Predict the structure.
Amino acid sequence: MRWTFIVSLVVLLLVGSFLSTINFIKPTQYTFLPNPEGEDPTTTVTATTSLPETIKDGLTITDIEPQSPLQNPPTTIKGIYATSWSASSAKKMDYLINLIDTTELNAIVIDIKDYSGYVTYDITVPDVRTYHAYEVRIPKINALIKKLHDKNIYVIARLATFQDGRLALARPDLAMQSSSTGKVWQDKKRLTWMDPASLPIWDYNIAIAKDALSRGFDEVNFDYIRFATDGAISDIKYPAWNGVTPRATVIRDFWRYVRTQIPDRAISADIFGLASVSYDDLGIGQKIENAFGAFDAIAPMVYPSHYYSGTLGFQNPADHPYEVVLDSITKAVARLKLYNSKQTKPITATSTAFEIAQSERPTTIRPWLQDFNLGATYDATKVRAQIQAVYDAASTTPELISGWMLWNPSNVYTKEALELTDN
């Protein structure tokens, strides 16, 4: 009996060794990150290396073909934000689509890469796969885009850029380093950042943006396009930045590089709301004039709760949403108007790629507005006051405003603040 067992074991080992030499497509396992929406984060998605098939819960899910962008996109974007977790939930998407269907809303912004650094669908960009920097939270991204387009909803892909946890693990040589420990630097929230001056990091994120656009997303929204702010900033050692070139120049060069690499599709940029009223770079490299010409839309995050006490003489700016947003957007529009008035150089055979792209796709302002409770309770009155402030800020130059977007991290929005439709 003992010899029979040993022989059987040897046979099993030999068979296993033989099977390992066969060229199977080996599935890769992806475990979900903690889910901020409170849904079950323990579900595991298994995706083969050949798209568009994904295996989930033992069932093969085949995505449809990539989609085309909307043929007639809205000129005034009225959008809401959705995490990748919300986008993966049929129940949550039904709520969001119904909200859009029954109100003035016409757009949605979906995370395709958040602070974690994981791309949230099964992407084929080689570096992303090499670094295992994707997590299939949205198994059928093409089908989701089609579902939204069938409702005539404009679909924006949000891409967190220089804040990137996963890439810092895979490529610590390109991440911000700690001078004191020699390890990857972390901010106060223990989040990691890539060096904003690193060309490989630029190309990595642009490749992800191009993939999203090829799937049918109507626009890519670049977020966290700045230097880090929170933590021991003086402890940071940069692999690429020389410390001499102004931060604002580094970020400007990245913005313009993005435009030259994506010259004919819609792209937008999130910047601090204070960049609308400040004339320095806020210590993070963001000067609003440097973004003009590089993006179709600039999205200042003019959340009143994020302005310091004393702004416009208000002890608590969050209690005065109309005044805070009106002031910021009025100044942003005035600065854009001034910038445009100086663009008189004609396009010639010697014009740069950026100059050509800038001339063909003028920049507009499209801010993020607050629909969450911070600093004050944000009811329908406060949310609507911000929307009205955007319109009032551009009453004489409406062509410089291309809409607004509402931010709520839980993706629950104040319907009463929105105009209803007959749908």
Notes: The longest helix spans residues 321-341.
